[in-house]
């Protein structure tokens, strides 16, 4: 799954000379949390709702609301924008986007093409939706968990059990546990869970958890 298929294409952008007041209005009216800043067709910065809140009114300000509004109407985005922007290309995978967001502790990435032109935005919400789709959660499947030891042929042995029982695996994912073992999660249309549990246990892969995920 690639960024291009999950991003919001053609996002609204602003220039570095846009006023803070105008940028705030764009964010408020469109319920955005970030705006890419573009000059001559290329990405030069980004401004977030947090950046705007930092220069907005607070109980501690010594300025009147009229004085503050006047200043915000004069201040430009270039005065507060972040110039070091974490971006990603359309051809990158959703996993790469997720790692970038995780490592930089940010909620979204600007998507650019080879010419550094802004072509989209991908956010943590898009990543979450991708996870839901990848795992087939909307379809409402039976989810089983196996605690296994990683080895060559593991997937083959487990999938053979499903094949013998004529069960189609919708999705399969695994991750390492603190004790070094592997937790494998499988989603499928399973009619007789008890029969599958017996078959897997006979192969040395007992089921540790079963639940039916409803959409």
TrEMBL record:
<protein>
    <submittedName>
        <fullName>Acetoin utilization protein AcuB</fullName>
    </submittedName>
</protein>
<keyword id="KW-0129">CBS domain</keyword>
<feature type="domain" description="CBS">
    <location>
        <begin position="7"/>
        <end position="63"/>
    </location>
</feature>
<dbReference type="InterPro" id="IPR000644">
    <property type="entry name" value="CBS_dom"/>
</dbReference>
<feature type="domain" description="ACT">
    <location>
        <begin position="143"/>
        <end position="215"/>
    </location>
</feature>
<dbReference type="InterPro" id="IPR002912">
    <property type="entry name" value="ACT_dom"/>
</dbReference>
<feature type="domain" description="CBS">
    <location>
        <begin position="81"/>
        <end position="140"/>
    </location>
</feature>
<dbReference type="InterPro" id="IPR046342">
    <property type="entry name" value="CBS_dom_sf"/>
</dbReference>
<dbReference type="InterPro" id="IPR051257">
    <property type="entry name" value="Diverse_CBS-Domain"/>
</dbReference>
<dbReference type="Pfam" id="PF00571">
    <property type="entry name" value="CBS"/>
</dbReference>
<dbReference type="InterPro" id="IPR045865">
    <property type="entry name" value="ACT-like_dom_sf"/>
</dbReference>
<dbReference type="Pfam" id="PF01842">
    <property type="entry name" value="ACT"/>
</dbReference>
């Amino acid at each position: 799954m690639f960024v291009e298929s999950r991003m919001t294409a053609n996002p609204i952008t602003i220039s570095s000379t846009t006023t803070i007041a105008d940028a705030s209005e764009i964010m408020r009216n469109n319920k955005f949390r970030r705006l890419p800043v573009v000059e001559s067709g290329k990405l030069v910065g980004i401004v977030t709702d947090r950046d705007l809140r930092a220069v907005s009114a607070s109980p501690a300000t010594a300025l009147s609301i009229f004085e503050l509004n006047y200043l915000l109407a004069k201040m430009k985005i270039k005065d507060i924008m972040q110039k070091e922007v974490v971006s990603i290309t359309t051809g990158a995978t959703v996993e790469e986007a997720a790692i970038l967001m995780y490592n930089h502790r940010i909620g979204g990435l600007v998507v650019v093409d080879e010419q550094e032109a802004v072509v989209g935005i991908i956010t943590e919400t898009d990543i979450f939706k991708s996870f839901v789709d990848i795992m087939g959660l909307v379809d409402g499947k039976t989810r089983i968990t196996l605690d296994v030891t990683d080895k060559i042929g593991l997937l083959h042995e487990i999938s053979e059990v499903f094949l013998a029982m004529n069960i189609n695996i919708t999705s399969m994912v695994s991750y390492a546990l603190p004790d070094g073992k592997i937790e494998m999660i499988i989603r499928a249309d399973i009619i007789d869970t008890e029969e599958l549990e017996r078959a897997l246990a006979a192969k040395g892969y007992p089921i540790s958890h079963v639940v039916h995920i409803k959409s």
